Amino acid sequence: MTAPSIAPLLNPLLDELVEFRRDLHRHPEVARTEVRTTARVADRLRTAGLDPVLLPGTGLVCDVGTSGPLVALRADLDALPLPDETQLPWASTVPGASHACGHDVHTTCLLGAGLVLAGLDAAGRLPGRVRLIFQPAEEVMPGGALDVLAAGGLDGVDRVYALHCDPHTDVGRVGSRVGAITAATDQVIVHLSGRGGHTSRPHLTEDLVFVLGQIIVGAPAALSRRVDPRAGAALVWGAVQAGSAPNAIPSRGELAGTFRCLDNDVWSVAGGLISEVIRDIARPYGVEAAVTYVRGVPPTVNAEGCVATLEAAVRAELGPRSVELTPQSLGGEDFAWMLERVPGAMLRLGTREPGGRTYDIHRPDFRVDERAVGIGARVLAAIALQDLGRLDLRSGERGSARVPGRVGPELVAPEPAPPELLPEQAPERGRQLRPDVRTTGAARAR
Asked: Residue 226: inside a domain, yes or no?
């Protein structure tokens, strides 16, 4: 089987896709309110002759093809509750909301890939089925990926792939790695209560402001001596509140932050351990500490075979120098829940103008080189075709069941991308930089 080059198939859609992304950027919708975004995607898929299925609430899934192995591609729909300070003509028109994490790009890339794959299917050139998953609520814990799973969105899927904007990588390149690419991420909220009083008589109070300071400094320090340092555990505080007068010790206070780690074993016990440490710090001062520990998402663990498929597809579509090893991030990503269910991988899509400024995600001034929209669509479509081709070769005939074992031979490489998008750099396989960091359960099995 020869994989078609995606670029000629996508080129007629590029202007439309860029404008589609700008429209989403003008009208951001935060988690679980992505009504307009869902409708826009569904309408365009129906225009292409597809039959999207709306998920409960917001989001949708849509299958392309009617028989054969099934591979899924996923994008997230939601925006962030941040202002848009880009001053671009397509800046957000919604006060206090913006696509500062690039989900408008993700959504448009998946839409473009779906339209190309639908064209191939209509021409009898799609060797299987592709499920397009437009997921809501990635930006809230534990994430809308669980909604997709509960609705059966991954039922029957062999593998699942996704991408995420990377403003630290030049457009035309992607980053990948084997193993964990993001971290487990949880929220920690501490409520303190104690007898307040005048600051001239702290000995007659239960000085919870002092205790807040002890917890802020002491809890991360204690954790560093209770957890294997190879787990990359980090407890970082982001908000603290207590009192309103300089000469009055308050009776209530609150502290909030996040816990992140690279290890599933540590993640499984972190809530109890952190709660114990915080209560032990507060107890000698007579302050009551109530800890609310909100489980977020596990590490996003890329399966080795899926990374090999992904990298082969990207190099075939964009050229031999288009893939680079990406560092592991301590950010959280609810795509991890999908990888707990089926093997798959996430890549990082370069969005920085070569030689230009880095506009980081989760900032009001985040912006992308819009060439990333077309490149992301090409990459997703190419990955689906590469994986379907391998599944097809392993099964022996189109439409038969998936057969365990090694993947088949490489597909024939299509034409590379224009050389100006491919900086000179030797090819590099996405190897795990931290092989000593452990994973367990389904993650280890992958």
From this structure: yes
Q: Are residues 73 and 129 in the same domain?
A: yes
pLDDT range class, residue 386, cuts 50, 70, 90 = very high
**Dihedral Cα 7, 9, 10, 13, nearest 10 deg:** 150
Q: Are 176 and 310 in contact (CB under 8 A)?
A: yes
Q: Are residues 144 and 193 in the same domain?
A: no
Q: Are residues 370 and 327 in the same domain?
A: yes
Q: Cα separation of 309 and 417, whole Å?
A: 18
pLDDT tens readout for residues 107-138: 999 999 999 999 999 999 999 999 999 999 99
Q: What is the pLDDT of residues 27-66, one digit of tens each?
A: 999 999 999 999 999 999 999 999 999 999 999 999 999 9
Q: For residue 135, what are its two tokens?
A: 């997921």
**Main-chain phi, psi angles of 26, to 5 degrees:** -70, -25
pLDDT tens digits, one per residue of 68-82: 999 999 999 999 999
Pairing type for strands 248-249 and 288-297 reads unpaired
Strand order in the sheet with 159-170: 53-54, 60-64, 129-135, 70-76, 159-170, 344-352, 174-176, 323-325
pLDDT above 70: residue 377: yes
The rounded distance, in Å, linking the Cα atoms of 413 and 24 is 33
Strands ordered across the beta sheet of 288-297: 234-242, 252-261, 184-193, 288-297
Which of the listed residues 275, 296, 317 is the one where a domain comes to its end?
Answer: 296
322 has a pLDDT exceeding 80: yes
